[in-house]
Write a structure and sequence with these properties.
alpha/beta, seven-stranded parallel beta sheet, 9 helices, globular
Length: about 375
Amino acid sequence: MAEPISEQSLVGRILTPKGWVSGQLVHDTHVRAIEAGAVARGAPRIIPGFVDLHVPGGGGADVMQGADAVRTAARLHARHGTTSFLPATVTAPQDVLSASFTGIGAVQGSREPGEARVLGAHMEGPYINPGRLGAQPPHARVPDTEFVDAVCAGGIVKLVTIAPELEGAMDAIRRFAAAGIAVQIGHTEADYDTVREALAAGARGFTHLYNAMSPLHHRAPGTVGAALALVEYAAIIPDGIHVADGAVRAALRAIPKLFAVTDATAAAGMPDGPYPLGGHTVTKCGDSVFLGTDGNEEVLAGSALTMDRAFARLLALGLDIEDVSRRLSTYPADFIGRWDRGRIASDTWADLVILDDNDAIAKVIVEGEDIARAD
């Protein structure tokens, strides 16, 4: 368990929901006060810690491997600015998924020093289209009401990715939404009208926009067209590999609360080489992760992205710090109903990122704890 945090203070320019405030931030595990006052020229900027809703792994560990692997990923991503996250399971048999949820739940209930907070699980599959697996293992299937209800009752899964064209998918979407589980559309061949029906049933967003979904065509808008036309939220991987910058810009114009995810695999934070992803082996080559062991496959298999790099990439696209902060912190927290995360306000968790003069991350604080930074 993390040690109790005594009251501390930080001085700088603080990004609050109402804008920048110069002064002092007082916190223990939570933000206790934001006191306006004069600060020295060059005082650091303090922004909310990053919230990542799609993390299959990191630091060499795959979250499907159990609690110890989840903790390894939690430590890796905390050092890169992620203060809370959802470990993402991959498509697998029901018993394997259930065991993975048990491991994630154990970490969710007990954060240890140096870790980002686990907020629950993102169940990415098994209810996805077998024709749009991407790097997902071949265990896709149609929704099973008994398992859907077990997931709803379990309290661990907070986000589900589903292909709405599957038999029984609309009923599953309604059940998940009624249980307070956020639903994203992904790994899908759905057409525009099917997506509209899924949104009416309770789906609210899209998983790694553009990737593993039916594309936009002017006479067949597909899933991508529906996302650009109809929703407030969608997730995107801004690593410069999964989505070209021009497509990111188009999504930023169309989707008001587009937010960033890493989709980081075990390869994140690690040297080039092979790593696990569920039942697959994937290979990190430079900044990319591919399905297979030789790095020559064309199928992207998640990423090696960390949130500090996502922050820098969105700044490089011309977004200001306030906008980038919302897309890495506030919007993802809001999407899963965590109003106590992703913002700096009285009584929210003291999840903070402190920036240096070059807008790089100088310090990370998780629930009041100062986390050792990565190189």
